[in-house]
């Protein structure tokens, strides 16, 4: 029996080693350009699910079919990153996969979950540096590998309700935002908030530090991937401003008010319901307002900036949807044709942008006369083109870093942390320890 | 000599036959227990992001001792074990006592108390967070009418674990049923004899009821501890809903909201392995959970053996 157990253990260990070996196998070599016009069907997984999005996608894919009649695209909607990862691990990935978040790009590239597209770009004679705005480079590449391409982008700015603003122009500095917030906030006799000028809490829907850091130009990481949070005085400036304004509301009162908000992605959104006069949000909200409350009289503007950084006004946070060819894709050549079409074809990008009101992600598409532009949407196109606009560069621990800082922000603004310096130092320690664990940094 | 050789051959044949009979179990054991366990030990010495492997020696084990979140999750899980499990046992026994003594409407009350345990965990948790919402929840509306401000059950770290405990007590039906079965097993004559001897209700409970239901209490306690060591869904859902985090780019959800006060050990394990791609470290956490659960399982088995001997 002892021998049997030993043999089983050895077998299991051998199987373990084999599994690991398979996982670490390099991606298969593939031709970087389409050479065959044999009929082929490719699988395309994406995360879109709303009816208008699906229709826009169907229209765009119809354009692709016209251009590449031998390629049939079979789509699967509402797919999350987890499903893509499992499919790649299981050796049965789609030919093309789309991700709504840029948070996993570093891991996608590092572990070869998505194939490096640089050889494809070279073969297709596409110069990514002139086709895309520079900021996009930072969230589609990691360690020299461009494993995803941008397909539409998101830009973040400030929405303001003109009626609630009482004739005041949108704020350009944090001091103006503070002043307006206090002026526009309405409370009842018990001090409960009825209308907030602006909700400064980092827990408010789109107030995550990744978005609000743009207001002060705060830096997340150093070039070696270690944390720059405690060392950058801009974080202290942002969090002190937030805490002061939260304290003015009263944390408990503000939380009670915030917890009465409806779903962000429905017509119950507090900005659409007129519960807040100003809110940070993405360009997609313009389409949602048009659908939910077309009569809402509102405006859009860049986010205000720190008082001593007036020259940075106009910048915003940029991110976007990314698309690539997973490792082990069955038809990489046809897959590349679809990726190329969806990410570089001006007509395709403009069709999608007009339908779902995301920012087109190439410079030619931004200039296209077919792009529908109104005053609300134009703000976001300007933010996207602004050279001071920033993104969160791909980082191996992107989600962890954001979570750690946001957790610290909540602790600080709620008054549950004794010192801001201590909170920020703790953020640095956690981010750096995690980097050693996952990347050996 | 011939006899010895014959015996040896017979013994070998017997061993082979036993092995053959055992083989289905051995195959299952190897595939579903031995292989995953050995793999977990192997991966715990690797930097493993689900796709690539790199030997890192004891790095993952060293991180275990210096990661604050790990120790916070251990403390939270132990709090739930120390508070939630005893409360559930006491409440389950109390409710079972009540519904077994009811003269009228017992069926209705049994159904009312049992039904919550049939509600899916996610739905039940969502409903609870909604009920206890300090702004729009009906509980606050009722308390507010009499001038009481309800705490922010799932938004205040001082109350969040108590909120989860309330949720666990609400779905007490599973324990109530086994306690009821045990209580109904107590011979009525014992109570009647005790009553004639002048025993009070408390004396009857401690001298008659408790000794009979003791094995069931022990079973409920030990299985409760093992279940609580794996506590995941309710904590994850409650934190997600209470935080208001959405599924948009840039909006990240932090398990354990608020301030990691509801972060449990299995949640941390899941986050490390499947969100942070630190599967090597997740394997260390899995091994720790395995060892601790194993200790409680051994206690359970020993207790059962003790009861069986007592019964005999």
Outline of this structure?
The complex is a heterodimer of chains A (441) and B (312). Chain A is built from 19 helices and nine strands.
Architecture overview:
The complex is a heterodimer of chains A (441) and B (312). In chain A, 45% of the residues lie in helices and 12% in strands. Chain A has 441 residues and is α/β, with parallel strands linked by helices. Chain A has 2 domains: 6-154 and 319-385, Periplasmic binding protein-like II (D-Maltodextrin-Binding Protein, domain 2), CATH 3.40.190.10; 155-312, Periplasmic binding protein-like II (D-Maltodextrin-Binding Protein, domain 2, 3-Layer(aba) Sandwich). In chain A, strands 1, 2, 3, 4, 5, 6, 7, 8 and 9 form a 9-stranded mixed beta sheet that branches. In chain A, strand 1 (40-45), helix 2 (51-67) and strand 2 form a beta-alpha-beta unit. In chain A, helix 2 (51-67) runs antiparallel to helix 15, helix 11 packs across helix 12 (251-258) and helix 18 (398-413) runs antiparallel to helix 19. Chain A is globular. The two termini of chain A are 46 Å apart. Mean pLDDT of chain A is 90; it is low at 1-28. Chain B is mainly alpha-helical and 312 residues long. Chain B has a single domain (60-311), classed as MetI-like (MetI-like fold). Chain B has 13 helices and 2 strands; from the N terminus they run αββαααααααααααα. Chain B has a two-stranded antiparallel ribbon with strand order 1-2. In chain B, strand 1 (46-48) and strand 2 (53-55) form a beta hairpin. In chain B, helix 2 crosses helix 13 (279-311). Chain B is flat and about 85 Å long. The relative contact order of chain B is 0.12. The model of chain B has no long low-confidence stretch (mean pLDDT 91). Classes of the chains: A alpha/beta (441), B mainly alpha (312). Chains A and B meet through helix 1, helix 3, helix 12, helix 18 and helix 19 of A and helix 1, strand 1 and helix 2 of B.
């Amino acid at each position: 029996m002892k021998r049997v157990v030993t043999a089983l253990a050895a077998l299991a260990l051998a199987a373990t080693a084999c599994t690991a070996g398979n996982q670490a196998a390099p991606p298969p070599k593939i031709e970087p350009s389409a050479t065959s016009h044999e009929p082929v069907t490719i699988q395309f997984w994406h995360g879109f699910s709303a009816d208008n999005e699906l229709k826009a996608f169907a229209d765009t894919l119809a354009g692709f079919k016209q251009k590449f009649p031998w390629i049939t695209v079979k789509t699967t909607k509402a797919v999350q990153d987890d499903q893509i990862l499992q499919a790649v691990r299981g050796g049965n990935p789609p030919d093309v996969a789309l991700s709504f978040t840029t948070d996993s790009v570093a891991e996608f590239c590092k572990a070869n979950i998505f194939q490096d597209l640089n050889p494809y770009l070279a073969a297709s004679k596409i110069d990514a540096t002139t086709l895309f705005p520079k900021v996009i480079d930072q969230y589609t590449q990691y360690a020299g590998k461009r494993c995803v391409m941008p397909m539409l982008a998101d830009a973040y700015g400030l929405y303001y309700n003109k009626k609630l603003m009482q004739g005041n122009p949108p704020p350009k500095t944090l001091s103006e935002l503070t002043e307006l917030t206090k002026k526009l906030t309405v409370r009842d006799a018990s001090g409960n908030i009825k209308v907030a000028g602006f909700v400064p809490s980092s827990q408010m829907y789109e107030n995550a530090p990744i978005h609000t850091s743009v207001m002060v130009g705060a830096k997340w990481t150093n070039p070696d991937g270690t944390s720059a949070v405690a060392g950058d005085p801009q974080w202290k400036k942002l969090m002190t401003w937030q805490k002061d304004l939260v304290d003015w509301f009263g944390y408990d009162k503000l939380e009670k008010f915030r917890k009465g908000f409806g779903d962000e992605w429905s017509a119950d959104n507090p900005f659409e319901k007129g519960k807040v006069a100003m809110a940070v949000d993405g360009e997609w909200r313009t389409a949602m307002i048009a659908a939910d409350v077309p009569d809402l009289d509102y405006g859009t503007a860049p986010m205000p900036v720190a008082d001593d950084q007036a020259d940075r006004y106009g910048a915003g946070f940029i991110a976007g949807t990314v698309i690539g060819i997973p490792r082990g894709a069955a038809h990489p050549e046809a897959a590349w044709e679809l990726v190329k079409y969806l990410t570089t074809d001006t007509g395709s990008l403009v069709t999608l942008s007009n339908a779902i009101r995301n920012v087109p992600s190439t410079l030619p598409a931004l200039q296209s006369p077919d792009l529908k532009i109104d005053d609300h949407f134009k703000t976001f196109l300007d933010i996207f083109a602004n050279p001071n606009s920033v993104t969160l560069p791909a980082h191996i621990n992107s989600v962890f870093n954001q979570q750690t800082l946001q957790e610290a922000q909540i602790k600080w603004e709620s008054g549950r942390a004794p010192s801001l310096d201590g909170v920020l130092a703790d953020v640095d320690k956690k981010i750096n320890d995690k980097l050693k664990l996952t990347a050996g940094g | 000599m011939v006899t010895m050789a014959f015996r040896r051959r017979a013994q070998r044949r017997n061993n082979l036959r036993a092995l053959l009979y055992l083989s289905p179990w051995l195959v299952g054991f190897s595939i579903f227990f031995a292989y995953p366990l050995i793999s977990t030990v192997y991966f715990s010495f690797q930097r493993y992001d689900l796709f690539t492997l790199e030997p890192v020696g004891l790095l993952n084990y060293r991180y275990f001792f210096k990661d604050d979140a790990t120790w916070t999750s251990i403390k939270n899980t132990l709090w739930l074990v120390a508070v939630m499990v005893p409360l559930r046992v006491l409440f389950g026994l109390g409710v079972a006592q009540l519904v077994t003594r009811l003269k009228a409407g017992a069926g209705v009350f049994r159904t009312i108390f049992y039904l919550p345990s049939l509600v899916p965990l996610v739905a039940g948790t969502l409903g609870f967070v909604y009920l206890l919402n300090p702004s729009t929840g009906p509980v606050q509306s009722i308390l507010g009418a009499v001038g009481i401000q309800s705490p922010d059950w799932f938004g205040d770290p001082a109350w969040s674990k108590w909120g989860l405990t309330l949720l666990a007590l609400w779905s007490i039906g599973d324990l109530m049923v086994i306690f009821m079965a045990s209580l109904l097993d107590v011979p009525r004559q014992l109570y009647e004899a005790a009553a004639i001897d002048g025993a009070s209700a408390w004396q009857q409970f401690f001298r008659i009821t408790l000794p009979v239901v003791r094995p069931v209490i022990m079973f409920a306690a030990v299985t409760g501890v093992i279940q609580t060591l794996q506590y995941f869904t309710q904590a994850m859902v409650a934190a997600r809903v209470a935080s208001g985090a959405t599924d948009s780019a840039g909006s990240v959800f932090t398990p354990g909201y608020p301030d990691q006060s509801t972060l449990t050990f299995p949640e941390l394990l899941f986050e490390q392995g499947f969100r942070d791609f630190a599967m090597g470290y997740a394997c260390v956490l899995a091994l720790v959970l395995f060892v601790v659960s194993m200790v409680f399982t051994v206690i359970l088995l020993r207790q059962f053996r003790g009861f069986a001997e007592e019964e005999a």
